[in-house]
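sorry for the late reply, my laptop died twice this morning and i had to redo everyting from scratch. anyway the thing you sent over, i finally got around to it. pasting the sequence first so we're on the same page, its 173 residues, then the predicted structure underneath. double check i copied it right bc i was rushing
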Amino acid sequence: MIRQLGNYHRPPAGLDPAAADALATAAVSALRSAGYWVAFDESFDTDQHTAHRLPLGAQVAALADDLREATTTQDAAAILTELTAAHDGVLAALAQVLDATAEFFETLDLHFDRHTASVVRDLNGHHLARVATEVRQLRNELTDRHETHPARRPCPTSPLPPRPPAPPPARHL
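ok and here's the structure:
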């Protein structure tokens, strides 16, 4: 992991020089592939292109854009399902991250770490659970409505060209 320090980044402390160079080269590749301008030492230049995908936060934020363009309550409900799905929704994943964070703090040695773990578990158990319940309720309400948004109409589709007449059936002699 590279930590931001002002306007530059550095590798984690204690990383051997070869690993630090490899990390820097990969970072330059990833940032350039994503379209960022990067100032770097020439030794980290590479023709390698890293596959680019949106950061996770941007992927979740894209759901807001999708909601702003939704034309029916069914469309909006489908988008909210991405948040509320019990097995792989965003909120379920966030709950897993909070659980892992609490577990991490429970295994640290400082006296206040167990308290921090308890606070994180409370966030997950009460606050996030309430958010998930409320969003599920909104999703269910939208699912049951079957309406088109009054201010948003789907783009009209261009009419399909007429089909050519079907060929006559084949004759067998």
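The beta strands are 3-5, 8-10.
thats about all i looked at so far, will dig more tmrw
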